[in-house]
Amino acid sequence: MKFMKALSCATVLAGCVFSSASAADMTVGFSQIGSESGWRAAETTVTKQEAEKRGIDLKFADAQQKQENQIKALRSFIAQGVDAIFVAPVVATGWDEVLGEAKDASIPVILLDRTVDADKSLYMTAVTSDLVHEGNVAGKWLVDTTAGKPCNVVELQGTTGSSPAIDRKKGFEEALKGHDNLKIVRSQTGDFTRTKGKEVMESFLKAENGGKNICALYAHNDDMAVGAIQAIKEAGLKPGKDILVVSIDAVPDIFKAMAAGEANATVELTPNMAGPAFDALAAFKKDGKEPPKWIQTESKLYTQADDPQKVYDAKKGLGY
Ligand code: GZL
Q1: Pick from 141, 296, 284: which is nearest to 216 by CA?
Q2: Of 4, 154, 158, 317, which has the fewest CB atoms closer than 10 Å, so is most exposed?
Q3: What is the pLDDT of residues 89-120, one digit of tens each?
Q4: Residue ranges of the chain assigned to CATH 3.40.50.2300
Q5: What is the pTM of this model?
Q6: What ligand 1 atom has the least distance to the C-alpha of 249?
Q7: CATH of domain 131-269+303-318
Q8: How far is the CA of 260 from the centre of ligand 1 (A)?
């Protein structure tokens, strides 16, 4: 609100003259998906820390993984006249109308960790990893690890219709192309949660000769992998040995599993999407400098060779 008052748009070549006020007088509305995974909870913690560091007034709304709650929250932020909106969109479609309303209200929107199928003019930038690349890294690890040996793979997908579920599947399948020893025999959503990951893995094990036909699990996030590891153990099999386990996020608990030899690899996703988002917003506020449409965060592969216990200890403090 204060930012919008400070904003005086001169019609000089359709440009805007921005006050040089600091980010500290900004109010940002953040529509968060929920707390479905350890990574999501860490993202929320880190976002609040990053706002606090900058003296930004953060209005936080938890959508309990429902898009209609996110749309309601965005409309409320618009009505409050916030200076900017951050949203982690639970699914990729259905955003055009409400993003158009934010645009009409001249409120910049920044997407965090997921993208939307909407015209790029409807948001300022998206701070995300390369989700296809993450799936590709996981797939390449499995190709290298199986080295041509026949391997039936089961896949736990993320939330149906979300950009990570779509893109991580795409990247993984691309990596397996040309390696006919690897076959995805079962694939179903576990909605990014431990509970659902365990439940669906139990059904995979039952359907695949008690798990004897399964050589590897690819889970779109660590939380589903951790749930599935429980199911594999309850079926009397050794996760990480009888069934290889590769997933994405690099949350502390997957390193705990790795240290116990129960998980094999994970691809890191930083929970700090908000830092780069706040920086892009501050630069825009200061001199109208528009950020690129995509601010990409790093993706790093970790395996059992990377001293998982040490990584676990180091990560414990970072918002998890
Ligand atoms: C991916 C992010 C995913 C995480 C999950 O960018 O949206 O959502 O991988 C979380 O842990 O549920």
Answers
A1: 141
A2: 317
A3: 999 999 999 999 999 999 999 999 999 999 99
A4: 27-129+271-289, 131-269+303-318
A5: 0.93
A6: 9
A7: 3.40.50.2300
A8: 24
